[in-house]
Amino acid sequence: MPDPSYPEDLLYHPEHDWARLDPGNSEEATFGITWFAQDSLGEVVFFDPPKVGSTVTKDAAYTEIESVKAVSDVISPLSGEIVAVNDALADSPETINEDPYGEGWLVKVRLSDPGEQEALLDAAAYEATLS
Amino acid sequence: MPSTTDLRRSPLDDRHRAAGAKLIEFAGWEMPLQYQGIKAEHEAVRTRAGVFDVSHMGQIETAGPGAQALLQYLLSNDLRRLPEGGAQYSVLCTPEGGVMDDLFTYRLAECVFLTVTNAANHERDLEWFQRHAPDFNADVIDRRDAFAMLAVQGPRARHLVAGLADGPLVPRMHCGGRSVAGVPLLMCGTGYTGEPGVELMLDPDGAGEVWDALVAAGATPAGLGARDTLRLEVGYHLHGNDLDRDHGPIEAGLGWCCRESTGFVGSEVVARVRADGPAQKLVAFEMTGPGIARPGNPIAGGGVVTSGTFSPSLQRGIGMAYVPAERSEPGTELEIDVRGTPRAAEIRSKPLYTPKES
Q: How far apart are alpha carbons B258 and B274 in whole angstroms?
């Protein structure tokens, strides 16, 4: 597992999720879980991605991640419709631990209300919630 | 839930923190869930040797001329078959035949026994022992604070401990006084992983020294997370999950440690269930598709999951469940409702994983 990190180009939800706005399309974003979230979970052993086309709502659970010990809800940082899921995680769910901000992304979402991002935290503000 | 300041701590607490362990609340104790990771610790125990701090386990000493008679009355197994220096597994039943706890009892001398309790049940067990002691000529003494407890388990565990011990190791299902790393202790040929190994009960003041010596000799520190995956792979019960007051030992598949002819508390019910056949049986299962069943997940057609986790050895979900007896045969397919999603599983005979010959 890598050392703790909270990249500055991401927006954070206090329930330990991140959103990366697509630089070429302000209405699309990639979601994942933070270093803190994957560390709390421990080794991820199963991820059953949600369906493409399903809707997600800010602050509501949209999928689950399972570690050896337990299952945890994943909270959506923003609202919208899922346009892609990370199918590679079916065979290698541990990627969520190894690269939570890169290859361990979970879903891509077409945002229904891009203005919601005003409520999210920057890296420093999110990190402050962890101490 | 008690605050963390109310939690009991192991004498090895400073070692766990220094090793970067992730600590969790377990039955009123703060204990290590994992150090480096559950999978790596599980693998270390299956292939080499791991050391667990299980100091949360409780101990009750029963001594005196009537000690055997008292235990014969309370415990399900036949104490006459427990020799000095021996170990015996049994359950403690309620008068209604439910399981209050499952325990190992060690006979230290003709009239001195040490019984190891589950942490969550220790106080209730102790009170139960003490309540019945006046009817027998026996003393029941709480020895929880007198002992730290370490389990060294794995195909290399006995070899590793032998290098630190002052004499030959006690055989499986036996116990005896030894010293390890120069510290006197009670060595027991028992464990909870299906692997060879020993359990060590010792003065908490000496626990750090023994722990350090075991780790220096190559034992991998392993936490409660790996302890749970290891025990479930070999079909060992966890009280509070797979055993409870609402299910008897026959339902749980523990008839082998019950000798109803001894007249222990609850034996009439146990004898009746054995004769009539239980309505439910505890079975082991493997997921045959994706998903991991968890405790409390209902089973289509009746039944409920009592333990469920990811098996590092089998690389899939495994568990135990109570199911209707008529649908409890190995090979029976199960549909488990995992938080709203039907997931496929199949009943398998125990153990789900067979430890390799060491």
A: 10
SS3 helix, strand, coil % of chain A, rounded to 5?
20, 35, 40
Mean pLDDT of the A71-79 span: 96
Structural domains of chain B ordered from first start: 4-55+147-232 (3.30.1360.120), 58-145 (3.30.70.1400), 279-352 (2.40.30.110)
**Inter-chain touch A70–B292, beta carbons under 8 Å:** no
Q: What is the CA radius of gyration of chain A?
A: 13
User: Thinking of the domain A11-117, which architecture would CATH place it in?
Assistant: Beta Barrel (2.40)
Look at residues A130, A78, A73, A107 and name the one whose alpha carbon lies nearest to residue B339: A73
Q: Is the peptide bond before A49 cis (omega within 30 degrees of 0)?
A: no
d(CA B48, CA B342): 37
Query: What's the rounded Cα separation, in Å, for the pair B132 and A70?
Result: 40
The distance of B94 to chain A (nearest Cα, Å) reads 31
Opening angle at CA B229, ends B224 and B230, nearest 5: 90
Spans of all domains in chain A: 11-117
Which of B25, B309, B313, B336 to mutate to probe the A interface, most A CBs <10 Å? B309
Candidates A1, A3, A68: best to mutate against B (most CBs of B within 10 A) is: A68
Element (H, E) at A17: strand A17-22
B:11-50 residues touching chain A, CB 8 A cutoff: 22, 33-34, 37-39
* ipTM of the complex, rounded to two decimals: 0.89
Q: In angstroms, how far is CA B260 from the centroid of its own chain?
A: 23
Give the confidence band of A1 by pLDDT, cuts at 50, 70, 90: low
Token pair, residue B20, equals: 């970067």
Rg from Cα positions in chain B: 20
Q: Do A43 and B38 touch (CB under 8 A)?
A: yes
Tell me if chain A has a CB within 8 Å of the CB of B225: yes
DSSP state of A51: P
Tell me whether residues A71 and B294 touch, CB distance under 8 A: yes
Instruction: Please tell me if residue B313 touches chain A, with a CB cutoff of 8 Å.
Output: no
From residue A117, alpha-carbon distances to A27, A125, B166 in Å are 11, 14, 66
In chain A, residues with a C-beta closer than 8 Å to the C-beta of B339 are 64, 71
Taking the Cβ of residue A61 and every Cβ of chain B, the question of whether any pair is shorter than 8 Å is answered with: no
Q: CB of A43 within 8 Å of any CB in chain B?
A: yes
Q: Which residues of B touch A70 (CB under 8 A)?
A: 294
Q: What confidence tens digit (pLDDT) does each residue in B148-189 have?
A: 999 999 999 999 999 999 999 999 999 999 999 999 999 999
Q: CA nearest B259: which of B249, B247, B267?
A: B267
